[in-house]
Design a protein that fits this description.
Blueprint (H helix, E strand, L loop, with lengths): L2 H30 L3 H27 L18 H28 L3 H31 L1 H6 L4
Helix pairs in contact: 1-2, 1-3, 2-4, 3-4
Amino acid sequence: MSQKVIDLLNSARARELAAISQYMIQHYELEDKDFGKLAKKMKEVGIQEMKHAEALAERILFLKGTPTSKPEMEAKKGQEIEAMLATNMDLESQAIKMYNEAAVVCAQEKDQISKQLFEKLLGEEEDHFSFFENTKEHIAKLGNVYLSSLTGE
């Protein structure tokens, strides 16, 4: 088994752990400000990132590695919604780039299962990016009218 692949999987796991923390903090902060609809979506994305982190850990363990438990970075707190979305788009775009590159390396290392895992996660990260980008565009076009639609349950 390739140490290079294990290292890529662990880098991805550290990124996922950071995303989990970021999205769950945003969920709590948005919920506290009565942006319940957006808070719910952040929680859903955070839970999907938890599933990503778990899948990566399982693959690392199968390859006889040790899954990292340290997030790649500290989560940002107290951001306004537009800044949250920019932070999230940055996290997702970095993951998309990383996972594309990791899939290529896994293929070179002849590890098709890890390659397929990165490709699966890649599709889901693209969906997250699209959601954050669309929400940011709606706010830019509609402003407070759109923001008010995100309140409540």
